[in-house]
Automatic annotation (TrEMBL), chain A:
GO terms for cellular component: ATP-binding cassette (ABC) transporter complex; periplasmic space. One of its GO terms (biological process) is peptide transport. The keyword Signal applies. InterPro entries: Peptide/Ni-bd, SBP_5, SBP_5_dom. One of its GO terms (molecular function) is peptide transmembrane transporter activity. It comes from Streptomyces hainanensis. This is ABC transporter substrate-binding protein.
From TrEMBL, chain B:
Keywords: Cell membrane, Membrane, Transmembrane, Transmembrane helix, Transport. Residues 94-297 form the ABC transmembrane type-1 domain. One of its GO terms (cellular component) is plasma membrane. Belongs to the binding-protein-dependent transport system permease family. SUPFAM superfamilies: MetI-like. This is ABC transporter permease. It is a multi-pass membrane protein. Its main location: membrane. The lineage of its organism: Bacteria, Bacillati, Actinomycetota, Actinomycetes, Kitasatosporales. InterPro entries: BPD_transp_1_N (IPR045621), MetI-like (IPR000515), MetI-like_sf (IPR035906). One of its GO terms (biological process) is transmembrane transport.
Length: 546, 307
């Protein structure tokens, strides 16, 4: 008797378990080989911040913003040049006061028209310190930024809106910059400058749950951390209408899994081929493997605020270390040619016309082990006989190249202890140490461009007290050349002056350029016309689905 | 029994507070997470300060902890850096990990105990030796290797399953990840059951049962197995928590957005609200599973009584 009740209880328990396991029975068909008709299935990563235009500074959120927004300018995916998108004209006579006229007939995907006010409101929102937008520094050029966004911690803003922005009529507004900046209109392709519909301000939470923009796609459904379905915005007024019916972005927690899913035919597009698969990608995918230059440069910076690296001897040491790194071998063996040895401080995506100067750095950025040890000896040897190389190691396979760079230096100097890697566990920790100026030796300095302008590769990193001047470099000559470039009336003149500034860098060598980074992608046979823009984001509107 | 339950539940309170505080301090000790939100670019101090105030990062650690615990008891687990309430993250992640855990647990119970009994009763025979070798192999090879190999073989080569599971995974999709997740525990359960069964098979009460002329099946299941299960149940109870929290590797391989994934991301981004929130729930699960196991002892062995 007792036995039976027990057994029954056991049976009931088993049923409960079975019910829990079964769960909701929906979601079928997700993994099937045949994708939805005309829709591109692409890999995605979870965006770090809420999807607001001025609050996105990483590529995963940027990928979506690029699809659902079009600003005044758009960067040509092939050449990287800024071209008018919503702007009809942006005129100036003094490189400081600009009049912006927008095109007629554009609408947000909720049907409301895009007006000059959509821009002014959006920029005021992005700039204001109370909204804590991580990309608000984009508005720093506009007059009145200091009043809405005081630079000192704890200071209260003294204005609600940017004084330099003035609405003229439905299609016109004027912008006054705090100082001349001739290339400023070319920065306007960045997502932070996107217009925002009224619904953004009226029901912010609802907008964040399902953002509404004016771009070639609109969001059909958004499940945070999991997936987003975008469909073509049928009333899109721009020239770059989507050539497919939509895009389904799926969050992958590991790029290796995405790559496996691509191989199994469950995914059409992977835009970051995992390091472990680079060696096989060419063989697995053939011409469906893309490897193109992107606007990213990796360098090694030095703590110029530290006595060891100052003065003439410091410069000699830096030059020596630079010549001890075998960039060719590292980019080839570790990165399978998805990096190119760097020979200046910018990026090939700018093109020669945009200011990229191939070979500018000359023999200093080449591998000359004998000359390297000579230079270091002349400078009195490494400080304390050794040097460290510091970076976070949680992402981006940094550990591998750091080991390779140190090995290369050790081989050149014929000393197994000359260079040691100092790994920092997390990116946050690394940025804190760099920001607090606690570096004593070499440290990683990566730069992903915000917009394809030579200005963006030089000014934020090397101008005195600039926001990302982590090495503490200061040079009056460099600053003067940058100021001259920004005040220049024509673009060619500005680029020439920035190149002068770059000449100063090559002489002073505050950081040693390592390599230009490429973007990689792989796609299925179901899609064609896949390519990456200079930000290494796929140009989704061009993709055709067979 | 009731008194025992109350005492055990009361004991949970300090364990719970201690565990959450330790986790809180550990995440806090990793340093300031705000700078990383700005990428490679140096943050501007005003925005960073506003973000710190938003997440209470400008307060001393003990105050942060008190504020946080206060929030938890009113049902608010804070906000992740992407602006989502942590409760939403948990609402999505826990059901998935729970399903995965149940599948793994059922697999290791059924397969592990069955294999353990069979090998325990046939000590030294060829079946025993080969199962033993197999379990050794499973324990020795890292889950990562087993998982990716199985994924490539069944997902890409044979095409039987999809290599990555969908956001709302069905049981069928979770079978392979569940099996991979359970393999190591399965091996341990097999070995534990085997040893225990082998030992008890020589016990007096088994000889008595056999002498009474009870059917072989009844002797094995009612007498031998029931008495041999105590160590196994202890192990399984502790394993419930481990399977849920420790599925990071398996979840990453099969793109399952469960607890392991959220914890991993929380640690990488140093988001204490996410990490502590998930760990709080995990600590509760561990404590309850242990309590459940202790009560189960009395059911298995009537000699054990609680007062």
């Amino acid at each position: 008797m007792l036995g039976t009740t027990r057994r029954n209880r056991g049976l009931a328990g088993a049923l409960v378990l079975a019910a829990a396991v079964a769960g909701p029975a929906c979601g079928g068909g997700y993994g099937s080989g045949e994708g939805p008709d005309g829709v591109v299935r692409a890999s995605w990563g979870d965006p770090q911040h809420p999807l607001e235009p001025a609050n996105t500074n990483e590529v995963q959120g940027g990928k979506v913003l690029d699809m659902i927004f079009r600003g005044l300018k758009r960067y040509n995916p092939e050449t990287g040049r800024a071209e008018d998108a919503m702007a009809e004209s942006i005129t100036t006579t003094d490189q400081r006061n600009f009049t912006v006229t927008i095109k007629d007939g554009w609408t947000f995907s909720d049907g409301t028209p895009v007006t000059a006010r959509s821009y002014v409101d959006a920029w005021n929102y992005g700039a204001h310190v109370d909204n804590a937008q991580v990309a608000s520094y984009f508005f720093q050029f506009i007059d009145g930024y200091d009043e809405v966004h005081p630079s000192e911690e704890g200071d209260k803003p003294t204005a609600d809106t940017l004084g330099g922005l003035r609405l003229v009529d439905d299609r016109t507004f004027t912008v006054r910059l705090s100082e001349p900046f001739s290339l400023w209109p070319d920065t306007l392709g960045y997502a932070a400058y996107a217009p925002l519909p009224r619904s953004f301000f009226e029901d912010h939470d609802a907008w964040l749950a399902k953002p509404v923009g004016n771009g070639p796609y609109r969001i059909d459904s958004y499940r945070k951390n999991q997936s987003m379905r975008l469909v073509r915005h049928e009333d899109y007024a721009g020239a770059d209408r989507a050539r497919n019916k939509g895009v389904e972005l799926r969050v992958y927690t590991d790029s290796n899994t995405a790559y496996t899913d691509l191989q199994a035919g469950n995914l059409d597009l992977v835009d970051d081929v995992p390091a472990a698969q680079l060696a096989n990608a060419q063989r697995d995918l053939g011409d469906r493997y893309l490897n193109q230059p992107a606007g990213i440069i990796q360098a090694v910076a030095f703590p110029l605020y530290h006595d060891d690296w100052r003065g003439e001897d410091g410069a000699k040491l830096r030059r020596g270390l630079s010549m001890a790194i075998d960039r060719e071998a590292i980019t080839n063996r570790i990165y399978h040619d998805t990096r190119t040895p760097a020979s200046d401080y910018t990026s090939p995506v700018l093109g020669a016309e945009g200011g990229w100067q191939k070979g500018l750095c000359g023999e200093v950025c080449e591998y000359h082990p004998d000359r390297a040890s000579e230079l270091i000896e002349e400078a009195g040897g490494l400080p304390g006989g050794r040097v460290t190389l510091t970076s976070n190691v949680d992402t981006g396979s940094h550990r591998q190249w750091m080991d390779a760079v140190c090995n290369s230096i050790n081989n050149a100097l014929d000393d197994t202890d000359a260079c040691t890697v100092e790994p920092v566990p997390t990116f946050a920790d690394f940025r804190n140490r760099v920001g607090d100026r606690k570096m004593t030796g070499m440290f990683r300095s990566g730069w992903q461009m915000d917009y394809p302008l030579i200005q963006n590769f030089l000014q934020p990193i090397y101008y005195t007290d600039a926001s990302s001047n982590d090495s503490g470099y200061r040079s009056d000559e460099f600053d003067e050349a940058v100021d001259r470039a920004n005040a220049s009336a024509d673009e060619a003149g500005a680029v020439r002056a920035f190149q002068d500034a770059q000449g100063v860098l090559v002489r002073d060598l505050p950081a040693i350029p390592l390599w230009y980074q490429n973007g990689t992608a792989g796609h299925s046979e179901r899609v064609s016309d896949v390519r990456l823009n200079p930000f290494s984001v796929p140009v989704f509107t061009d993709i055709r689905v067979s | 029994m009731a008194r025992y339950l109350v005492r055990r539940l009361a004991q949970m309170v300090p364990v719970f507070l201690g565990a959450t505080f330790l986790i809180f301090v550990m995440v806090y000790a990793l340093g300031d997470p705000v700078t990383a939100l700005f990428g490679d670019r140096g943050p501007d101090p005003a925005t960073a300060a506003a973000l710190r105030a938003e997440f209470h990062l400008d307060e001393p650690v003990w105050r942060q902890y008190v504020l946080y615990m206060g929030q938890i008891f009113s049902g608010d687990f804070g906000t992740a850096f992407n602006g989502e309430p942590v409760t939403d993250l948990m609402g999505r992640a826990f059901p998935i990990s729970f399903r995965l855990m149940v599948i793994a647990l059922v697999l290791e119970m059924i397969l592990g105990i069955a294999l353990g009994v069979v090998t325990g009763l046939r000590r030294g025979r060829s079946l025993d030796t080969s199962v033993l070798m197999l379990t050794l192999g499973v324990i020795a090879v890292p889950t990562f290797v087993l998982g990716t190999t199985a994924q490539y073989l069944f997902g890409v080569r044979l095409g039987w399953v999809s290599p990555a599971v969908s956001p709302d995974p069905t049981v069928r999709e979770l079978l392979l990840p569940g099996l991979i997740l359970s393999l190591v525990s399965l091996a341990y359960v097999t070995r534990l059951t085997r040893t225990s069964v082998a030992e008890n098979a020589r016990a007096d009460y088994i000889r008595t049962a056999v002498a009474k002329g009870l059917p072989r099946r009844r002797v094995t299941v009612r007498h031998l197995l029931r008495n041999s299960l105590i160590p196994v149940v202890t192990y399984l109870g502790a394993d419930i928590g481990t399977l849920m929290a420790g599925a990071i590797v398996t979840e990453r391989i099969f793109n399952i957005q469960g607890v392991g994934f959220q914890l991993y991301q929380g640690v990488l981004r140093q988001n204490s609200a996410t990490v502590v929130g998930f760990v709080v729930v995990l600590v509760l699960i561990f404590l309850l599973a242990n309590l459940f196991v202790d009560i189960l002892y009395a059911v298995l062995d009537p000699r054990i009584r609680y007062a």
